[in-house]
Amino acid sequence: MFSLPESVKKSAGGFVLLISLLVVSACSTKPHVVKQTEISVSAPKEIYIVSHGWHTGFVVPASTIQSLLPQLRDRFPDTPYMEFGWGDKSYYQAEEVTSGLTMRAIFWPTDSVIYAVAVPERPDIHISESEAEALCLDNEQYSLLISFIEHSFYKDSDGNIIKTKDGTDGDSQFYKGEGQYYLVNTCNTWTAKGLKSAGLSISPAFKITAGSIMGYLSRHNKAQTGGACPTNGAKPH
To answer: What pTM does this model have?
Structure first.
């Protein structure tokens, strides 16, 4: 019977241990999954999870999170919806992505940013060219998700969020984020944490790629029987 050399077994065991420790640390690092919140909304909300190839993010009605972060209302005063994503500061903000930026983002813990984008029309129309999945969340689920997104922004001692750079995709802005980006704490891990906060039975561990997020959501939606939100297609108030 074939047997691996002890040195290989030790190396393999060490690698598995390292990956396990990284996964545990990613699940416990900022931004944290939100389990309770004082935020309250009055109606079910339809939100979208959108994939732009590598990055995933949330498209949500603007009003609730703008009430929590007034600087977002000042910056995006008239938008009915907003899209939010979280990622590596240098990679996400780069005008030209290089292999060096990619390797650094993946293998070395780096500062993060939140990317906020105004969505001026119904999300299903605005993001029609991107892969997207809709979710209807009840009051508690939506409140927890918004709380998670709000806590993903870094705040100074006065509670203000901090702009870092103008965005390049329409009316958009980068802000300093909470937590560090690295191999097992990616933009897609962040999206999984948001979904976990909203009560979905998703594990952020190993949700590293956009495909792992969108695949989960596709299976989740196929298993649901409730349909879209009652306010589907209407602009939020």
So the answer is: 0.81
